[in-house]
Structure formats: structure tokens, C-alpha cells
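I have been asked to look over a protein record a colleague put together. Thanks in advance; the entry in question is below.
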Amino acid sequence: MKPIQVGLLGIGTVGSGVFNVLQRNQEEIRRRAGRGIEIAMVADLDVERARAIVGSGVQVVQDARAVIANPEIDIVVELIGGYGIAKALVLEAIAAGKHVVTANKALLAVHGTEIFAAASAKGVMVAFEAAVAGGIPIIKALREGLTANRIQWLAGIINGTTNFILSEMRDKGLDFDVVLKEAQRLGYAEADPTFDIEGVDAAHKAAIMSAIAFGIPVQFDKAYVEGITQLAAADIKYAEQLGYRIKLLGITKRTDKGIELRVHPSLVPSKRLIANVEGAMNAVVVQGDAVGSTLYYGKGAGSEPTASAVIADLVDITRLHTVDPLNRVPHLAFQPHTLDQAKDELPVLPMSEVVTSYYLRLRVADQAGVLAQVTGIVANAGISIDAVLQREADEVGGEGSTQTDLIILTHDTREGTMNDAIAQMQQLPTVLAPITRIRKEELN
């Protein structure tokens, strides 16, 4: 049988990995897929560099639309990234009757509903395993492996840059700005790291996983997003002393009121496996009603780990592209006509309605009565306190210091209630700096 013909849009880090892994493992891939998978055409603005990667046996062009227009191409792999030209090209490929594989989480998080609807109408597949957590097959697990389960929640370390920064801050006791510069020097962080450090990249991925887990449309615009730029070395140190580690988590959870969808730093008990995921590695914990807790761990980025996911999608499409479209696995795991109904029944909750527990750090005057004032406000708000720690003034500000850190751990409470209590505490004349609030996730 003739090999299935693939057109590659972009042959940068991931694209070159796809080409190299396909070449190296072509016989095993053919045996798994039932026929060969062949990159027949590549589009890249740097034609000479692309030719140097693929050699003389592959047609290289500068215009991506030439790939889409080629009737011999069965699958288009989009590795350009971003929301702009990538969206136009994906929709044009679908309109031309091509299956699409993409690693573009931003595109799917923002425009996934439109793209999946277009693909369903045309009877083609859009596969996106590489869009979330690199080489970890979390999309496949959520969409197929856990299909018997009512998913209750999932929480993931799904951005390697921020996890590397937090690991370095904890190991070396350094502040965020210092570690960010080191991460950029080592190539873990981009020159403009905004999407990573502000939590946007993780939120793109969390929105996609939430849709698959709960059978709702992709709703990135409703996600709560908070990055790691305000974290201090002191909070990481205090968390460690309390038996926690701070991780940037993407969390989505089913509740009686609706779906939580949020990305923010979280204190996680150090005994949890996910708390011990270090460096640039990724991990996702999924809680299902039948299977219980499952953990998926591995490299979340990189040339060949991401290529592994892209090629897995190519194999899936090769196996299924002749199947009646109605008998394929739905893009978001649930049948498309059920998604809007679920959106009404399971709305994404505003952050003020989320219930979780908290770590609070207050820089206060080291004088009598301060603790009573602060805990009085917390108690009057109906917030249950788990623990209160007051550091020695000398430890915080050096010998003779008149300031100290007061640390409060709470039990579960509504975010809106906590916001009101923090606003009241902040107005106390004995509270000398903005209060640090970090959410706490037990993940049990």
C-alpha cells in the first residue's frame, strides 16, 4: 500500500524532530500503522535550512498554501504556532479535505471550537496530542484510556520553564528575577518569557484538558490565570518548612456548581508524587471515579519528545482515515452535539466562587496584639484556621528588627470570602506590606 503523504508546515525544533524520528523508526511505525508514513513536502520560510534537514528526496517550498493545495498530501502538520496565520492555514487545510495534526495549544485553546466544528463538518480529523505536555500521552489517556470514568479533577505541572524556575528557587534560595535570568541563559526560558511566567501557556493547556475531561467546549477565556512573578524565596522556604512545595499548577475540577478552571502557584504536600517533579519535567494527576488517581510524567517539551506525540497522531490518522467519520473518537472525547448542553449544565465558575485552602504571609509590626487582630478578622469571616506560625523578628529582619512574618494556613473557604478578609487585614496599621496569598492544594 502506498505510504500516506504528509505535508509539514514549519521545520524548526519540533518539525526537524518529526522528520528525524520518522526516518529512524520508519519500519516500526509502518508495522504499527499498517502502511508507511512519508513526509513528501515541507514549507518553511528558510528554504535552504529546510533542504539541509530533509535532503533531496522531499519537496521544499516557501509557501505553506502550496502544501495545502497539493492533492497528493493526505495530512497537514501545522508547527508554525501562534493564533494568526496558523489558524488560517489549519482552516484552509480542513476545507481542502486534509486531516490536520498540530502542536499549537494557543490556537486550540482560543479557536478550538471553530476548528473542531469545521473538521467535523468536513469529515476530517484534527489531532493534537503534542499540544499538551509534550511527549506525555495525556490527551490519549483522557480521551480514550479513561473513557469509562467520570473525571472528578485533574492537576498538572504543564509548563517546564516555570517548574525549572521554581525548582531552582527552592534548591538555591534565590529570588525569581535572578533565576529567570539563569533560565534564559540556559535556554529554558525565552527572551520574552511572558506566556510562561504569567501562566498563559499552562492555561492554554488546562483549558484543552478541561474540555476533554468534562465534555464542555474549550473556554480559555474563562480561565483564572496567575503566574509566578510575585513569588518570593521566603515563601518557598516557609512552604518547605511546613511540609509543602510550591508548584505552578493547571487545575480543573468538577463541583456541584460547575467547573473550576484555574492556573496559579499552589502549595502541594511534599509527600505527593507531583510535588517531587523537578526541573523542566511535566506531570499530570487525573482523578477518576472508577480508576482513582493516575499520574502521567515525562518531558513536556523538546524536539523528539514532542515529535513522539506528533507521530503518534500521524499513526492514529493513518489507521482511521478511511473509517466512517461518525465512528471515530470525537475530538473532545464526547459527541459534539452534547458539548453545548454540558456548557449550560457545567458553567466555568468565576474565581470568586472557587473553594480551596490558603497560605497567607503577613509582614507585621512585632508588637503585642497583632496576632489577635489578624486572627479575629479571619474568624469573623467564618474562615477556619489550620495553623498559625509567627517567625522570630531576628530571623526575618536581622538583629533588632521590629518586623516579623506571620504565616496562616486555612482550611477550605470560598475565594470571595478570603478576598474580603485579606482586604480588611491589609488595612490594619500593623500590616506593613502587601499580603502574600498562595492557594493550597492537598490533591488527595
User: Anything to note?
Assistant: Residues 105-122 form the longest helix (18 residues).
